[in-house]
């Protein structure tokens, strides 16, 4: 059978056309249990599915009892019978009026007897029926309902999560939510919109993109994420401490030699100014370290235009500066990329842990209420 496409605007008779097409399929072959069992009609809305089921039953009833209908109604259904026969003839199928009426009577009776097999349904209902066939493979409850309203589902999950804070005093969840709130305020969002912002963020766990990585996330618990954060923080602190220690050593050499930072290459923008800044801030920063690299490579730490007394003063400690500077550059180049990557990961790791917690709540909710989010079938 060839593929047929119908394009029509609202109110142009799409339901009528599709109903006739359904009946044409249902009656084109005789089966004792009803050929309608082989047909699937899918709609977008429940209302459309109900309307189409109603129209199919109405048309079958009209064709089945056409001989006993008033004359004005007979004309309508005789026209439908004639239209169906004409289409059959294009497929080289010849069916008389009497045979078509008989098949309509049989099909109508079979549909009423086995209404559950009358497959005119929404896409969501079809997915649920199909999924029910593979509940073990899909790890679904034996009896489940598809929950279509993701906002309602997220509200219920958020209530459960907040209940762990308010009623049970769960310290881990409490800290995660407090940290989320601090980040939101720090990024300029209103404290009064905390629940809505939390709702919008946690809704990520219902998205198709999240389900692509869900299998990699599932083995990790909230504790795992917090341990990862702790390990990252320790690694970052170790790298940071080593670099700041080298920066301090560099500045001490200058101080002991009574050399001001602006005496070095770059003046006020010399490496000494950068080192003072990271020591005061307690954390090194992303920097190309241009003046430091030039000094390490050349062994020269003053500009050519610098006066001779200062040049001599700096040259006296140049080897020490070069040695410490080289250690700093090597340590920076070996660890900076990893450090700044860890910094980005650490920034959102507690948010990811929060996603893990809501995913756990989702699994518990689905198990307790025998429901599955529609997002799982995306």
Keyphrases for this structure?
single chain; 378 residues; mainly alpha; two-stranded parallel ribbon; 14 helices; elongated
Please give a structural write-up.
The chain contains 14 helices and four strands. It is elongated, with a radius of gyration of 37 Å. The protein has a two-stranded parallel sheet. With 378 residues, the protein is mainly α. The chain starts with 13 loop residues before the first helix and ends in a 5-residue tail after the last strand. The longest helix has 52 residues.
Strand content: under 5%
> Mean pLDDT, as a whole number?
86
Side-by-side strand order of the widest sheet: 1-2
Low-confidence stretches: none
Number of strands: 4
Note the main sheet.
2 strands, parallel
Helix fraction bin: 55-70%
């Amino acid at each position: 059978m060839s593929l047929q496409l119908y394009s029509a605007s609202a109110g142009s008779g799409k339901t009528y056309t599709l109903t006739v097409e359904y009946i044409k399929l249902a009656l084109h072959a005789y089966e004792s249990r009803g050929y309608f069992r082989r047909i699937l009609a899918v709609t977008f809305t429940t209302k459309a599915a109900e309307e189409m089921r109603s129209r199919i039953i109405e048309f079958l009833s009209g064709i089945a009892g056409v001989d006993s209908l008033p004359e004005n109604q007979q004309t309508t259904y005789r026209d439908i019978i004639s239209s169906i026969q004409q289409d059959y003839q294009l497929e080289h199928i010849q069916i008389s009026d009497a045979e078509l009426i008989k098949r309509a009577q049989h099909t109508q009776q079979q549909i009423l007897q086995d209404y559950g097999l009358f497959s005119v349904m929404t896409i969501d209902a079809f997915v649920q029926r199909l999924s029910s066939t593979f509940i073990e493979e899909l790890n679904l409850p034996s009896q489940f309902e598809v929950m279509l309203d993701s906002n309602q589902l997220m509200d219920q999950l958020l209530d459960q999560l907040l209940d762990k804070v308010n009623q049970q005093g769960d310290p881990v969840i409490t800290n995660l939510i407090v940290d989320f709130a601090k980040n939101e305020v720090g990024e300029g969002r209103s404290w009064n919109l905390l629940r809505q912002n939390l709702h919008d963020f946690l809704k990520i766990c219902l998205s198709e993109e999240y389900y692509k990585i869900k299998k990699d996330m599932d083995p990790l618990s909230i504790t795992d994420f917090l341990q990862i954060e702790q390990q990252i923080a320790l690694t970052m602190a170790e790298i940071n401490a080593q670099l700041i220690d080298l920066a301090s050593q560099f500045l001490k050499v200058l101080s002991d030699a009574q050399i001001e930072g602006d005496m070095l290459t770059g003046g006020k923008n010399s490496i000494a100014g950068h080192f003072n800044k990271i020591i005061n801030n307690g954390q090194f920063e992303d920097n190309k370290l241009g003046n430091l690299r030039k000094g390490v490579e050349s062994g020269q730490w003053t500009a050519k235009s610098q006066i001779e007394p200062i040049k001599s003063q700096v040259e006296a400690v140049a080897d020490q500066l070069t040695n410490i500077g080289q250690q700093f550059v090597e340590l920076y180049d070996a660890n900076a990329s990893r450090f700044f990557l860890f910094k980005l990961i650490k920034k959102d790791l507690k948010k990811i842990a929060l996603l893990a917690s809501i995913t756990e709540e989702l699994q518990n909710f689905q198990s307790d209420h025998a429901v599955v989010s529609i997002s799982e079938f995306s």
